[in-house]
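Re: Re: token formats

Sure, here are both.
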Amino acid sequence: MTNTDSDTADEAQTGAERSTDTDGPPVSASPPDTTVQTTGTDHVTLVGSNADDTVAFYRDVLGMRLVLRQPNLDRPEVTHLFFDSGDGRLVTFFVDESRDSEPADQEPGVGAVHHLAFRIDHERLDAVRERLADGGYGYSEYDRGAFHALYTTDHNGLTIELVVDKYAIPDDRRAEVLAHAQSERVAADDDFVDDDHVEAALDALDLPVERRDVPDAPAGRGYTE
């Protein structure tokens, strides 16, 4: 969908406040009226296996910098590894040399981590596929509507998603773009956000609409188009 006049753009500015699914909470780019206001993600910590295998995947395959290694301050017999995911935000692991890596299928339950997602440069998509294949890591590839993604697993079977933005979206405007795209999706009675909705959101927010050169792929196992 494309906006055709200035009134449409004005309406889209409040669209994020209006856009709700009938069976879910309202979607909005506006901060909620709460006492606590988070300012960003600092780090996510997982229980890892051993240091060598963890470094081999997260540093040597994904290219994250290992920026800190020290004892777990609550359990000094365990080592705490800190990796920079690329933008200063951290993913950390509690590792122990007595633990073996277990590359088995994971079935996470309520409260568990389902997967980790990291952004990659769209121009390096081919190189990422090649690096995963060279390392013996299988992958699948999907067009997730708002973005494109590769899925693989780490040395312990944890699902890792590598996200490519299909459009250049400024980090400080991402919430606005997604909320406006949601409004467009609901108005069109579509199942999920896709290119048309993102393009309409970018246009309404006076942001450049430049689709990057990423390949076509299925939307997911539940959708074939």
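Second one below.
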Amino acid sequence: MRPATSSTTSWSAAAAMAAVMAIGGGAAAAQSLPDGENGRYSMTPIAEGVLRLDTRTGTVSTCTKNAAGWACYAVPDERSALDAEIGRLQAEVEKLKAQIAAGPTVSGKVDEALPKSDPLKKAEPKVSEGDRGIEIPLPSDQDVDRVMSFLEKAWRRLIDMANRVQKDVSGKI
């Protein structure tokens, strides 16, 4: 075999470079194809025009033809709104956790003790010690007077109604 000369070496280097360019050029050509030919968009016909799905980003658009030509508008994405609300709530939770970790914050006067019972709460029935019976509080005189007044008015109206019915019946017979 004869020793390699500079021209033989340059020819083999050129051939190797051409092979690399041919292999790499095919990949570069595939990447330089328009997005529609590379399978990026998926089109589905709908009544108004075409529904376009971007397979790389997941964005959905509606494409319609008008006087100026075709126009595509992104469909509102519920997911982005939900993600924004989740982020807001997570930030609020973190803020509340930080407030709790900082310690209790009490506003107002705390030197006096709070009342032990609710002044508007009605008294519960008491149990007597000897016979373990339940004591039921009786109504006051004012409560009894109100009930009696109601019953008297109802009785008078009933008597008046009976008298009117009797007059109507006796007048027709």
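The chain is about 50% helix and 15% strand. Residues 1-33 have pLDDT under 50 and may be disordered.
- S.
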